[in-house]
Design a protein that fits this description.
16-stranded antiparallel beta barrel; 3 domains; 25 strands; Porin; mainly beta; 4 helices; 559 residues
């Protein structure tokens, strides 16, 4: 009201000074007031139109690919953060008389005016920790380490096709790489080593091709509160034979997959990964791979990289992929998330898994392995598959929500010799996390049951083909323990806390212990951590039955 009075006073003064008393056509006060009213109505209309246009732009951005803020919770192993703000790509200049918003041309479509754009999101996850651990092997002692814990960087793009008559359709692409923040970089840190793809979103779901965490892996990714730390559940879960690889918690190459829309919390996903192998027994590199065996850790377990222990001469045609290399793979998952309830069921098949490295019968290096009781080890080439089912519930307590998860897993290797089939066993996992303000307190339990007794073979107790060293400096080099004569079960406990400075930054502290029967040889940090802590001596001999302990603290930052 005071503004209107002031404008009226200024207008009257201007009339009095500008026109003077001798001007016969001087404007009256009523004339001035009518003009002011017209100006105010015009400004109000412009403000309303501007507000309406802004609301349309924001609604389109949210519905057509704007990045959503990530909810407070544990970082997901299989999905990158989604809260990075989209940056529009440069758009062509609008035609004469055309309307543009933020440099993007407004076009008409089936749903009315929409903006033809491509959104590009730059995102990343940084997680660096300091670790202290003890493998309890006679010549190792307590060690310290610094690790990158699955840090990554990525670029995601989405091109909306609705302006061209394809309402609800978009072309999507993503290129994501591992970032070795603490370690010396290798080919693991080249661009596109993590989930990377090109695909199409439709009203009926998304089809993508490239490489990605499998549906089987993603189904329970949120279940593990200690993902990528030394308390990661992959020490046991999805890990068929122990050691430093979780074969059924994997990112698959040469893949094509489908992700359905979410119907009342229910979603289905399916993936097919082509083996692309030269050799009928999958002992060679896949088409398009330089020296990386399918299902192998880069320069590590299962690869044919020189110095890894399993390498044989030659590149293509070297037939050195004999430690878990497989052909075609299929992975499917059905997940349900609605309110406090979560439920999952998943299945994955690896065809023709080559385990000749365990029995010494790999092509070109035929040297059969005999145990000290005269038994010849023969593991061969067979299909391997896994099934898991479980769920979770979130309790709303007065002091904060309590999230619980649990699932059971079946790991199987078909038609294998039961005397040497350590890949066939069951496992169970459970976790809980209590949230109290910015704090969360978590605990987890994982157990690998022993492989089944092979009663048809009188000398066989369980299916471990290994001969393990004793954990004794006096006899380690002179005697070994025959693996399939003793049990190979293992149990892991982990506890920890996390403090969230915000949705995007946190500090954590985790402690873990892995106890094992005499024939077991699992590792802390398998697959998720920047390195693995295994029960091995300085000569890389595997020590059976060791108890491994670790503590780790780190800082995370998502953007």
């Amino acid at each position: 009201m005071r503004t209107r009075e002031l404008l009226t006073g200024v207008a009257c003064a201007a009339i009095a000074v500008g026109l003077g008393p001798t001007n016969s056509k001087a404007a009256t006060l009523d004339d001035v007031m009518r003009r002011l009213d017209a100006l105010e109505r015009s400004n109000a209309q412009l403000a309303k139109e501007n507000a309406d246009l802004r609301r349309q732009v924001k609604a389109i951005g949210a519905a057509k690919g704007g990045a959503a803020a990530a909810a407070v919770g544990e970082p997901s192993k299989g999905n990158p953060v989604l809260h990075g703000a989209p940056a529009p790509s440069p758009a062509p200049a609008p035609p004469a008389g055309g309307l543009s918003v933020g440099g993007m041309v407004v076009k008409a479509g089936p749903a009315g005016p929409i903006i033809d754009n491509t959104t590009v999101t730059i995102y990343g996850h940084a997680d660096v920790s300091g670790d202290v651990f003890n493998p309890s092997v006679f010549d190792q002692g307590t060690k310290f380490g610094v690790s990158s814990n699955g840090s990554y960087f990525g670029i995601r793009a989405r091109h909306n096709l609705a302006p061209y008559g394809w309402d609800g359709f978009a072309v999507v692409a993503q290129f994501e790489e591992q970032v070795d923040v603490a370690a010396a970089p290798t080919e693991r840190a080249s661009f596109g080593t993590r989930d990377s793809y090109l695909g199409m979103e439709t009203p009926w779901g998304a089809i993508k091709a490239g490489k990605s965490d499998s549906p089987y892996k993603k189904a329970t990714a949120a279940f593990d509160p200690f993902a990528n730390t030394l308390g990661d559940y992959n020490s046991i879960m999805g890990n068929t034979g122990g050691d430093n690889r979780a074969e059924f918690d994997w990112r698959m190459n040469n893949a094509i997959w489908y992700e359905s829309p979410i119907w009342y919390g229910l979603q289905f996903s399916a993936m097919y990964a082509a083996g692309q192998n030269y050799a009928p027994d999958n002992s060679d590199y896949a088409y398009g791979s330089l020296f990386q065996c399918t299902g192998a850790a880069a320069r590590g377990s299962g690869s044919n990289f020189p110095g890894t222990g399993g390498a044989v001469p030659g590149n293509i045609g070297g037939n050195g992929c004999t430690d878990g290399s497989y052909g075609d793979a299929v992975s499917v998952a059905l997940t349900y998330k609605n309110g406090p309830w979560t439920a999952i069921a998943a299945y994955e098949l690896h065809e023709g898994v080559n385990r000749h490295g365990d029995d010494g019968l790999q092509p070109g290096l035929v040297a059969p392995v005999f145990l000290f009781n005269g038994e010849q080890v023969f593991t061969g080439v067979h299909n391997e598959w896994a099934v898991k089912a479980g769920g979770g519930y979130r309790f709303d307590l007065p002091w904060g929500p309590l999230q619980t998860y649990a699932y059971y897993e079946w790991l199987r290797r078909e038609n294998a010799d039961p005397a040497f089939n350590e890949r066939q066993r069951d496992g169970v996992f459970a976790s809980l996390t209590q949230y109290v303000g910015p704090w969360s307190f978590s605990a987890s339990f994982a157990h690998a049951f022993r492989t089944p007794d092979c009663s048809a073979t009188p000398t066989c107790v369980s299916g471990n083909p290994a001969m393990l060293s004793f954990n004794d400096p006096a006899v380690a080099q002179a005697a070994t323990l025959q693996g399939n004569q003793v049990g190979n079960s293992a149990t892991q406990w982990a506890i920890g806390t996390r403090y969230r400075f915000s949705n995007w930054a946190s500090w954590y502290l985790v402690g873990a212990q892995l106890t094992q029967s005499a024939g077991a040889h699992y590792c802390l940090g398998a697959s998720g951590h920047g390195y693995q802590v295994c029960s091995r001596d300085q000569f890389n001999d595997t020590i059976g039955g060791a108890t491994i302990r670790a503590a780790t603290t780190g800082l995370t930052f998502d953007f």
